Amino acid sequence: MNLIMLHDKPTILNFLKENTGMQIYSIGDLDDFFWPKTIWYAFEESDKILSIALLYVGMDTPTLLLFCKEESHYSQKLLQNIKHLLPTKFNVHLSSGLVDIFGKQNIIDYFGLNYKMVLTKKIKAFDDKNIRKLSIDDLAIIQEFYSISYPHNWFDNRMLETNKYYGYFINGKLVGISGIHVFSAEYKVAALGNIATHPDYRGQQIGYKLTSVLCVDLQQCVDFIGLNVSSNNDYAIKCYKKIGFEIIGTYDECLIKNP
Length: 259
What we know:
Elements: E1 2-6, H1 9-16, H2 24-28, E2 38-45, E3 48-56, E4 63-66, H3 73-82, E5 89-94, E6 107-119, E7 131-133, H4 139-149, E8 166-170, E9 173-184, E10 189-197, H5 206-218, E11 224-230, H6 234-243, E12 245-257
Helix pairs in contact: 5-6
């Protein structure tokens, strides 16, 4: 087996598409919008890719993603062999059991078990005059909204350039947002993110309405829509299931130090 760095998008895509639902984020990161912020590691044998890990460096703290099927031997070996190439501190999204490769003593924060969900049905359009698209012109009120409604949220201003963010307004006040973390019309995938409702307006199905409208929009241009959600977030999981999402897998999220 050989440890290699990959720079060929078709090779990466062919491997990731073997498990598209779990790999939506990674597939989306092949898009030119995200690609310059990615580093791809792989194990190969006889020109066959056995495992791929993605280090996304487009945030203050990089994130390492590696998802595998039941057989995790190759993924474990890959992580062991790239540890010395990774930053001194980074987040990880890893299939269950893989975090152990870094040692429990090097886990700074364990953020919990998360579900990966994918949309499995066609969403019907509906009209709500309180909903409109958000743009960079709305950045100030978006930032103020997240500071109150989702203070630990990761939000990249560049995401507004995708034109896939929606806001819910009551009497001119922004009280809900649905958006994406990853979107690629070229690779036909989208991952929802940055979804929140103002604390004073929860329980009114605002998140359900916003996310449904966003999914109607996305289904015009992508084939796979997914999202990540904490396994403890019962309210959000119930909402996503009502829309038509199903759980397809799990992963651990941690902040790791790398001595």
